[in-house]
Amino acid sequence: MKLLVVYVDLVFLSNLIIDGAVLLTTAWVRGIRPKWWRLAAAAAVGAAYTALLFLPGAGWLLSVLVKIALSLLMLLIAFGFGGLQRFIRIAVAFYGINFAAAGGVIGLHYLLQSRGGMWDRLWLTDGGGVGIEVQYGLASVLAAAGAALLIWRAVWSSRKHTERTLGSLAEVTVEIGGRTARCTGLIDTGNRLYDPLTRTPVMVAEAALWSGELPEAWIEALRSGDVEGLLARLDLGGHAWGERLRFVPYRGIGGRTQLMLAVKPDRVCIERNGRRSETSRVLVGLEGGTLASDGAYQAIIHPSMLEDDGSG
What we know:
Elements: H1 8-30, H2 36-52, H3 64-79, H4 84-111, H5 115-120, H6 133-166, E1 169-176, E2 179-187, E3 202-206, H7 216-224, H8 227-233, E4 245-251, E5 257-263, E6 267-272, E7 275-279, E8 283-287, E9 299-301
Parallel strand pairs: 2-9, 3-8
Antiparallel strand pairs: 1-2, 1-6, 3-9, 4-5, 5-8, 6-7
Helix pairs in contact: 1-2, 1-4, 2-3, 3-4, 4-6
C-alpha cells in the first residue's frame, strides 16, 4: 500500500497564487482597481479552504452551499458589496472566469494525454464488451472546450463594454459657494440638454454629493420625482443657494415634459487623460437617485463642456 504524502504548505501557496490570479482577472474584466491587501486576504481565504480539505472529517466542506458561500465571501473581501447589481456582475464575471479556466484545464489535460494513457483507460466488461471511458474523455474535451469558449466570449464581451465605459469617464470637480465636490463623471455624447432660456449646457450629478447643503425635504422630492411639488413650496430666499437655483424643463420617458432642479456653480473642472477643461457656463442638474447601478460614476458630463475655453 502506497502512502500518499501531501505538502499542505505547497497546496496553500499554489492555491493562493491561483485564487489571486482569478481575482485579478475578475477585477480586470469589471474595470475595478481593488486594494492589494484585499485581494491578498481574499486569496488567502480561498487557499486556506483548500488546505482545510485535507483534515480528517472535512468532507462537509465539499458541499455546494459551502463552496458558494466561500466564493461570495472572497468576493466581499476583495471588492466589497457596493450594491446588489454591482455585486452580481462581479460574481458572474468571477464564476465565468473560473468555469472557463476549469474547462480549459480539462480540455488541455485530455489533449496532452499520452497514447499509452489513453489505452490504459480502456476496459473490458464481463460480457466481453469494451468500456467507453475513452469516448467519455472525448466528450469531456468537446464539452469543456465549448463551454470554456462560450463563457470566455461572454466574459470578454463584458470586458469590452467595461472598457468603453471606462474610456468615457473623467474626474469632475464642482465648486459652489466655496464648497467643492469631486466625483467621477461619464461623458455622454448624446446629452443635448440645455437651459432653453440661456442655452446653457446642463450636466447631471447625484444630489447626494451635496447632502450636507441640501435640505432633506429637497432630496426626498428629487428621489420621488416630485420636482413640480418642490417648486410650488420652495422658498428661494431661505436658502444660501436660492439665487443659484434653476428649473430646467426636459422630456422624460414617454415624451412627457418634466422639470429638473439645477444649480449654477462657480466653476466645473473636467480632467481626463491628462487634459483639463474648466468652465463656469454650465448648470448642474440634480438627480435624486443613483446614475450608475454599480457606482462607476456619479455625474453625466455634457460634451460641450470639454470644448469650453473656460469663459463664461
